[in-house]
Each structure stands twice: as C-alpha cells, then as structure tokens.
Specification:
5 strands; alpha/beta; 5 helices; Rossmann fold; five-stranded parallel beta sheet; globular
C-alpha cells in the first residue's frame, strides 16, 4: 500500500494535543505538509515545533481558531484553503462534558452540535473546492466508539458523535466518487 503523501496538504483540527497532534505527526512522517488548527496559539506553536520534516521542502503551519466561532473559523480555513488547497481533512474536536442525556439542557446539545457538526460542515465547505479541483480528497472524522454502543454518563456526546457518524457516512456516498476515494483493505 502506497502511503506517500508528498505534495498533499493536510488540515488537522484539534491538533495542539492528543489524538489530533498524533495524527498530525503521522501525516508529516508520511510526507504531507500539515496545517494544525486549534484554539491556543501558544499550544499550536509548541505542536508545530514538534512536527517532523522528512524533506527539506515540507512546509507546516498552524492557524488559531475556535470551533465555536463559526464566522472566524470559516474565514481562517478559507484563507488556508485559498493559499494552498487542502487534500486531507482530519476533523477532531474534544468534549462535550459528561453527564446523563436526560439532565442536559437544550443549550448543552446546541453548543455541542455547533462545536462538532456545524464546525465540521463549515470546514468541509471551505476545503472541498480544493479537493474537487485536485480530484483527490480524504476526510477523516475522529469521533468515538459511542457510535456503536453509547457510553454511560456521556449523553450529549453519544448523541452528537452519532450525528457526526451519520454525516460522515452521508458524505462518503455523496463525495466518494468525486474525490477518488478508495476503500483501504484492513488486514488482521
């Protein structure tokens, strides 16, 4: 399997720590130019400094944006995508806080929906023209095992992560043929 991503540009959300940062490192090791996206500029600067370069021309960058500030998020991602089209998008966002679904407020659900699904849709729409132009795109959604079986005391998260999984499946059917998506065989 050819995993050389030289010449590809990846945008990794939630990339200043944890799963997002680990994904960014692996994409960089595969040769991709990686742009990190997270809220904290200080954390992003540290994460950027830790990204490996496997070739001299590899160019990594970061952008500070809050997934809850949709206008600023759209503007910043559109700037990135206009400067250099994105072919690989990693949607990764933390939260929401724990607690049972039946005690969650409407605002708890609304905030989580905005931070996850609405923000992912905004980022997708900003990068999709570049993917279409290249005839190549990969969208990776980091969600949760709760899409298979709800996790106790994560009522809002279980609900929103399930919505993200359905959104991803819908996009695969809509965009797969356009973005040259191929199934990657999994061996055990």
């Amino acid at each position: 399997m050819d995993l050389d991503l030289t010449g590809k540009h990846a945008l990794v959300c939630g990339a200043s720590q944890g799963i997002g940062h680990a994904a960014a490192i692996e994409l960089a090791l595969l040769g991709a130019d990686v742009t990190l996206l997270a809220r904290s500029r200080d954390a992003l600067e540290l994460a950027l400094a830790a990204l490996p370069k496997v070739r001299d021309t590899q160019a990594h960058a970061y952008v500070a944006a809050d997934m809850n500030d949709h206008a600023a998020l759209r503007a910043r991602v559109e700037d990135i995508a206009t400067t250099r089209p994105v072919q690989i998008l990693v949607n990764n966002t933390g939260g929401p806080p724990g607690g049972p679904a039946h005690t969650a407020t409407l605002d708890d659900f609304r905030i989580a929906f905005n931070q996850h699904l609405m923000a992912a849709q905004i980022v997708l729409q900003a990068v999709l023209p570049g993917m279409r132009g290249a005839g190549y795109g990969r969208i990776v959604n980091v969600i949760s095992t709760s899409v298979k079986e709800p996790i106790r005391n994560l009522g809002v998260s279980n609900t929103i992560r399930g919505a993200m999984a359905s959104w991803a499946k819908t996009l695969a059917g809509e965009l797969g043929p356009v973005l040259d998506v191929r199934e990657i065989p999994v061996t055990s």
